[in-house]
Amino acid sequence: xxxxxxxxxxxFFTLTACNGIAQKENSTEQTSTSSHxxxxxxxxxxxxxxxxxxxxxxxxTDGEFSAGTIKGATNYDFLxxxxxxxxxxxxxxxxxxxxxxxxxxxxxxSALLQKNxxxxxxxxxxxxxxxxx
Length: 133
Fold this sequence. Notes:
Blueprint: H1 2-30, E1 35-39, H2 41-50, E2 55-58, H3 62-66, E3 74-75, H4 82-86, E4 96-99, H5 104-115, E5 120-124, H6 127-132
Parallel strand pairs: 1-5, 2-3, 2-4, 4-5
């Protein structure tokens, strides 16, 4: 009788332990592989120079963009909603480089990109004002 109780207890423990391991493995698969970096102007410049055709996004207003931007940047104003609409045209498998004037809007844009499953989001620390100095 003790042997049967021992075998049943051992079987229950084994099944419970294996089930826990399987659940842990499944949760790992569901974890997002998205990364978000905030780079200094020097690091940001080096990063975009290493890309053949970087997805470089200026989320400032049209007026701010017209007054000056980083060479190769495309303007999608975060405040008027054009950025939110343009997300569908970005390549999720490639890095997206994003900046605004000082970092507020680009932070919100970066969060939105991550929410939409972009694999790598890179933000300019201090925005265009830091770049321009």
